Amino acid sequence: MRLVFLGTGTSHGVPTIDCMIDHYAHCPRGVCHKAQNDPRYRRTRTSLWVCSDGFSLLIDTSQDFRQQVLAQQVRRIDAVLYTHGHADHIYGLPDIRSYCRLQQGPIDIYGSAETIDILRRGFSYVFNPPPQVGGGIPQVREHMLDGSLLLGNLRVEPIPVVHGPLQGCYGYRLNDVAYLPDVHEIGAEAMARLQGLDLLILNCLRFRRHATHLSLEESLAYIEALRPRRSLLTHMTHDIDFEQDSALLPAGVAFAHDGLEVEA
Ligand SMILES: [Zn+2]
Ligand SMILES: [Zn+2]
Ligand SMILES: [Zn+2]
């Protein structure tokens, strides 16, 4: 399968609006300033595009969905897996309407019961369309997921994770690749389902600890416990300096960046 990181930033993105407002004077590492000239420092909101055997799968529709699919020239979407219902992961949903129209049918979307409920409430015009509308409404077929399923040649397994008080948060295992972008704690049952990985893509917010995300130290501890063949870190704030901090990572671990392509 081919994986393309559509976005690797936390909910504020990088550069942040806050840093721009005060002319980058207080950006802790100067990363938002560097992002002006070096695309590896620019982080749109987190999302992953997976292509396998002709099946085009998206994980989450971020707030930056439109810029992301234009940048990576995503020409087809067969299904969307949602990790959870936070704004940075769902608010690109309206823009999948172009794919529904051109593919002439609804797109299958999957998530936990809690996530599907958030989508239904957040986008009531999509799930209960009014009789007449302008501009077009995405057509979706929603599926509550509480066990594994086959999409194309991918065995998709939801991995329940703890991500603060929000219920129904998932990471996903796709064959021997696991994607856990928003996580604070991985329980024993989830750890058991993450054995024997070729590639682990894991949340790494920043250096300091956080109530709902993993810090770099915590991410590396999980990587050491799980021993995947290789790991990529995602969902990062402006505290992570792509170039300088890469030197701190052990062999087989790297920071992802927007547009990064990986074969797995
Ligand atoms: Zn997030
Ligand atoms: Zn900044
Ligand atoms: Zn989140």
Short overview:
With 264 residues, the protein is α/β, with parallel strands linked by helices.
Question: What is the level 1 CATH name?
Answer: Alpha Beta
Average pLDDT number: 96
Multimeric state: single chain
Low-confidence runs of at least 5 consecutive residues: none
CATH fold descriptor: Metallo-beta-lactamase, Chain A
Estimate what percentage of residues fall within beta strands: 15-25%
Number of helices: 10
Task: Please tell me how large the radius of gyration is.
Answer: 18 Å
State the shape: globular
Q: Main β-sheet, in a few words? A: 7 strands, mixed
Strand order of the largest sheet: 6-5-4-3-2-1-14
Q: What's the number of domains?
A: 1
Topology, number of strands: 14
Distance N terminus to C terminus? 5 Å
* Helix coverage percent: 10-25%
CATH superfamily: Ribonuclease Z/Hydroxyacylglutathione hydrolase-like
Provide the structure class: alpha/beta
Q: Cofactors and ligands present?
A: zinc ion
What's the architecture, going by CATH? 4-Layer Sandwich
